[in-house]
Specification:
alpha+beta, 2 helices, globular
Length: 92
């Protein structure tokens, strides 16, 4: 089922930086369709905002909800703010 399981990772810092100064990118891959979305970031601290943007986009487009987010459990994914948001949204 679409969005039942979404994989995410952050890569970087990348050298050289982009023309806009971005040094990282964040990926989201739907396990069912294998479709991947990429968000470019200047700092890792943008990860939570990018996840909320991604979630709103794909849930509106598909009519499905993200049920499970799988990551490497890096600090960007394990903050209290991120965990509380996922819990409130029913994401494991």
């Amino acid at each position: 089922m679409k969005l039942e399981l979404v994989h995410s990772d952050i890569c970087g810092p990348i050298n050289p930086t982009s023309n806009g100064g971005s040094r990282y990118f964040m990926t989201f891959t739907d396990d069912f369709s294998r479709k991947t979305w990429i968000y470019i970031m200047k700092e890792k601290s943008a990860a939570f905002a990018n996840f909320k943007t991604f979630k709103a986009l794909v849930e509106k487009e598909s009519g499905c909800s993200i049920l499970c987010l799988r990551s490497d459990r890096g600090g960007e994914y394990t903050s209290n703010e991120f965990n509380e948001y996922c819990s409130a949204e029913g994401i494991k």
